[in-house]
């Protein structure tokens, strides 16, 4: 019976362990969840589709105006056949805008669709970057709490040793009080770290809902570096296609088309009117009256208001020039940001190598030897605390550097307009032929 009971307990524990393992939230899964539920991306896609449909509509001629009526009906008798001038008319009016205006308006709307497509890409990149930063924050605080919990065990051991030495008169009372104080301070740091951890989780829940409270991996997965991150020359070539810069390019193209559209105001607008008049019989002479057919072509000449047209054209040209200058400034800012992050990444790589090769080992050895010296009465308690607190800071600093390194790699992905490899949620934007 006992064997069956313990077998059942073991099965439950194994099942729970499997569930916990399966419930670990990876970085890629968190990003996929955020992208899948990002309504702003869906909004941008809808606006892109709206602009494309509007562009198709704008390429057509204006709808003709059809008029049906009765003209010159005598009011004394309302007899349709009494007067020769009375007729039923069908009239069709069709306007013909300047030759290239429809093509230009279509091009403007297509450029706006391209801007929304760039907005989709930009929003996805920003979502990926933000979720990655939050994921790394949660990972950092989780690991910080684990590190502080380990330190708490060590500090409690020091407290136990101090109590033993104090009981035999080998340590002073202030050493015991200091040890108890350090354990309390460490507990306070654990409480602060837990608060930061929970705060990051709730910030993440804005993007992935309850998934933010799932388990995090034990070890951080290094984000792969593509070739552009390994050379400044490749960086310069890769950054110019960033969606934010592409959006500005399409805006410049739109403003150029707005200038061309303003130039169309100097061209005439044609209108064609075709009408057919049906007349009744001459009841007095019993004779069929001939129907009437008319064709009228009219043209709207831009003879007046030249100052208005000139001002409108100049305004469009100034807007175009301003957009070009803004683009050049944005490129410079973007290039500077990429270079800064690249240098930052190289420095973080060097610091990590230094920590792995010397600092971590030296810090741990210093804490261990100081504890041995303290136990043999060759080191003061204050010296022991300095060594332990220094080792604690070294461990947390190393963890922060590791997280910052991955954060910088993610930032460079964003600045270069590249999504993290391995994502399942794809871009639902509409492909537009150039």
Number of helices: 9
CATH superfamily of the largest domain: Outer membrane efflux proteins (OEP)
Number of domains: 2
**Which architecture of the largest domain does the CATH hierarchy give at level 2?**
Up-down Bundle
Unreliable stretches (pLDDT < 50, length at least 5) are 1-22, 430-434
What is the end-to-end distance? 76 Å
Number of strands: 6
Please write the CATH class name of the largest domain: Mainly Alpha
Approximate strand percentage? 5-15%
Describe the model.
The chain has 434 residues and is α+β, with helices and mostly antiparallel strands. It has 2 domains: 27-60 and 99-266 and 305-415, Outer membrane efflux proteins (OEP); 62-96 and 268-301, Outer membrane efflux proteins (OEP) (Single Sheet), CATH 2.20.200. It has helices spanning 2-22, 27-36, 39-58, 101-167, 173-208, 232-238, 243-263, 306-375, 381-415, and strands at 65-71, 87-96, 269-278, 281-282, 287-288, 292-300. It has a 4-stranded antiparallel sheet, with no helix packed on it. Strands 4-5 form a two-stranded antiparallel ribbon. It is elongated and about 145 Å long. The two termini are 76 Å apart. Residues 1-22 and 430-434 have low confidence and may be disordered.
Helix and strand arrangement:
Elements: H1 2-22, H2 27-36, H3 39-58, E1 65-71, E2 87-96, H4 101-167, H5 173-208, H6 232-238, H7 243-263, E3 269-278, E4 281-282, E5 287-288, E6 292-300, H8 306-375, H9 381-415
Antiparallel strand pairs: 1-2, 2-3, 3-6, 4-5
Helix pairs in contact: 2-4, 3-4, 4-5, 4-7, 4-9, 7-8, 8-9
């Amino acid at each position: 019976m006992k064997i069956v009971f313990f077998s059942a307990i073991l099965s439950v524990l194994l099942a729970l362990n499997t569930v916990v393992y399966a419930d670990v939230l990876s970085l890629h899964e968190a990003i996929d969840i955020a992208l899948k539920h990002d309504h702003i991306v869906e909004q941008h896609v809808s606006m892109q589709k709206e602009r494309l449909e509007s562009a198709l509509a704008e390429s057509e001629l204006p709808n003709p105006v059809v008029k049906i009526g009765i003209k010159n009906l005598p009011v004394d008798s309302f007899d349709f056949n009494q007067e020769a001038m009375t007729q039923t008319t069908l009239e069709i009016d069709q306007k013909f805008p300047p030759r290239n205006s429809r093509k230009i308006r279509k091009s403007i709307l297509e450029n706006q669709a391209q801007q929304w497509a760039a907005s989709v890409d930009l929003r996805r990149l920003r979502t990926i970057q933000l979720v990655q930063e939050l994921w790394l924050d949660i990972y950092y605080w989780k690991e910080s709490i684990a590190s502080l919990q380990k330190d708490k065990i060590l500090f409690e051991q020091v407290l136990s040793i101090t109590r033993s030495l104090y009981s035999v008169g080998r340590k002073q009372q202030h050493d015991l009080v200091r040890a108890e104080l350090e354990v309390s301070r460490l507990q306070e740091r654990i409480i602060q770290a837990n608060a930061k951890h929970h705060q990051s989780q709730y910030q993440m829940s804005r993007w992935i809902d309850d998934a933010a409270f799932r388990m995090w991996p034990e070890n951080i997965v290094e984000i792969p570096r593509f070739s552009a991150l390994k050379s400044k020359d490749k960086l310069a070539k890769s950054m110019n296609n960033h969606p934010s810069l592409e959006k500005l390019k399409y805006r410049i193209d739109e403003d150029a088309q707005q200038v061309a559209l303003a130039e169309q105001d100097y061209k005439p607008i044609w209108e064609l009117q075709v009408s057919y008049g049906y007349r009744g019989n001459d009841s007095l002479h019993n004779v069929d009256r001939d129907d009437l057919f008319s064709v009228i072509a009219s043209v709207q000449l831009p003879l007046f208001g030249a100052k208005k047209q000139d001002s409108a054209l100049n305004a469009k040209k100034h807007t175009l020039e301003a957009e070009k200058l803004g683009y050049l400034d944005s490129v410079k800012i973007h290039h500077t940001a990429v270079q800064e992050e690249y240098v930052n990444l190289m420095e973080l790589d060097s610091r990590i190598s230094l920590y792995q090769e010397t600092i971590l080992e030296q810090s741990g050895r210093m804490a261990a030897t100081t504890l041995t010296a303290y136990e043999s009465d060759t080191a003061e308690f204050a010296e022991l605390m300095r060594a332990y607190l220094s080792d604690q800071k070294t461990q947390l600093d190393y963890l922060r550097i590791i997280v910052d390194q991955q954060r910088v790699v993610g930032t460079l992905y964003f600045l270069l307009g590249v999504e993290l490899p391995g994502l399942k949620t794809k871009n639902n934007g509409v492909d537009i032929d150039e």
